[in-house]
Structures are given as C-alpha cells and as structure tokens.
UniProtKB/TrEMBL annotation:
Top-rank taxon, per record: Eukaryota
Name used for this protein in its record: Uncharacterized protein
Amino acid sequence: MSPHIHPRSWNTLGSNPTSRDLSEKIPDPELYAGGPGPELDTSITKLDIKLQGNRDRYPTEEAQLRYAYGRLKDKAAALMSGYFPRRSQPTLKTMDDFYKF
C-alpha cells in the first residue's frame, strides 16, 4: 500500500465518484404533502436548489426524479405514485414533467 493513498479514497466502483469527490451535501428540503400556493413554490425552489447544487450526487434525470419523489408525502406522494412503479423506471422522463404536476 502506498503511503500517499488513503484506503478510504479508493474507488472500488469504477468510475463512480467517492464521497471525497462529491459536492458538499445541501440539506434535504422538507417533505411536501400537497396543495397549491406558497408552500408549493417554496418546495419547488428548495428541491431545485438541492438538485442543481448537488448535481454530481444526482447526475441523471432518473436519479433526480427518484430523489424528488422521495421528498413527497401524503396526497402528493399518492398522486405521483403511479408514475414511479416499483422496481422499474419512472414513467416521467424529465424534472420538467415532474414540476408540471
């Protein structure tokens, strides 16, 4: 073992970045339960800040969509559940599609 390489920095997953290579984690936005108005606007803004600021942690549209769905609860999660079938790809293709709902 080289004295200049710390074992924790080894990347055993090929081209995936190690945690040392990732951007500083932006706090998760609160879970969104549904409903129009200022709460929706705030939730969308915080979600967008998270996904743009941590783009390296959510590099694909699918990863962003899955994260966004994970920040929903109650009526909002129930409404979107049909677009996120278990063990398969979301039927929504982009975050713009997600935001339209």
